[in-house]
Amino acid sequence: xxxxGGKRFERFFRAAAGLDVDKNDIQRFQDLxxxxxxxxxxxxxxxxxxxxxxxxxxxxLPITKGLQENMHAFRRMDEDIELAPILExxxxxxxxxxxxxxxxxxxxxxxxxxxxxxxxxxxxxxxxQLTNPxxxxxxxxxxxxxxxx
Length: 149
Fold this sequence. Notes:
The chain is built from 6 helices and 2 strands; from the N terminus they run ααβααβαα. It is mainly α. It has one domain: Histone, subunit A (Orthogonal Bundle), CATH 1.10.20. The longest helix is centred in the first third of the chain and has 27 residues. The protein is globular. The relative contact order is 0.19. The model has no long low-confidence stretch (mean pLDDT 94).
């Protein structure tokens, strides 16, 4: 199950950063976003544990100012990401020692949207002339996000 269908994914990247992506980029996008989301949840889990809680709450998620701004911009784009595909794809990662609260789960689509918007915008920040990201561009963006998130 995908977070974005083909045409919707293409439309999102065009609106977000003026980029032309194709269906082959969907898996790269989802892999990058889910990897970063999982990293964020691991940090949130550590925060919940440090606060002696069994559940991860929304405030435990390490949302930076930049990501928060991208989440707000994503909301204004009037796009929608469903929770079920996110949870389904996160299930391939090792299980957490702390569960996600209902409110934290509800926040995940907006976090994914904000991360997606940040990815799209990062492409054109690094290379303003870029119109169609290639494999090497996706790899570069992945390395940048690994450094920052």
